[in-house]
Amino acid sequence: MNGLTDYQLEEATKGYSKVAGERFNACKLATNSHIEAWMLWAIWCACDREGESFGLSLEREMPADLGGTSVLVIPQLDIGNYKADFAIAYNQGSRIIVECDGHDFHEKTKQQAQHDKQRDRFVQDKGWKIYRFTGSEIYKSPLTCANGVIESLRRASYE
């Protein structure tokens, strides 16, 4: 699936203002694929629903502070020689890497699976928690995926 149908977008944006479609278009510009755009949009909406202020940084490094937002998302953050689909920092100190694993690029071959596992270990050694979602999970229920990320950020801030 290369993109979202109008029906999928309409179903997912029920209860949101007219800006939901515009917000999704902004997410497409900040990401490398439709599943990443869909996930970013869902995280933004989950923040709204949970009363968290959402921030998006297109810088390729983690800032010292979150600039007044409670959840800051950085697409394509470099961590060593690896790129994270999303690095997400919470104002209470927790942080998560979110990977959106489309079938074409993840675990299709043994080499891809090995690369992903090496990257996971490297990133975890740097203190990041990793959440991986398949493209199917994201397309089926993006807000469920995003809510899990927000809940994990909150839980980790108290550990």
UniProtKB/TrEMBL annotation:
Against InterPro entries, the record matches this protein to: Restrct_endonuc-II-like, Restrct_endonuc-II-like_dom
Q: Which Pfam families match?
A: MTES_1575 (PF18741)
**Which residues belong to any copy of the Restriction endonuclease type II-like domain?**
69-153
Q: Which residues form the signal peptide?
A: none
Under Gene3D superfamilies, the record lists: VSR Endonuclease (3.40.960.10)
The name this protein goes by in its record: Restriction endonuclease type II-like domain-containing protein
Origin species: Paenochrobactrum glaciei
Upper classification of the source organism reads: Bacteria, Pseudomonadati, Pseudomonadota, Alphaproteobacteria, Hyphomicrobiales
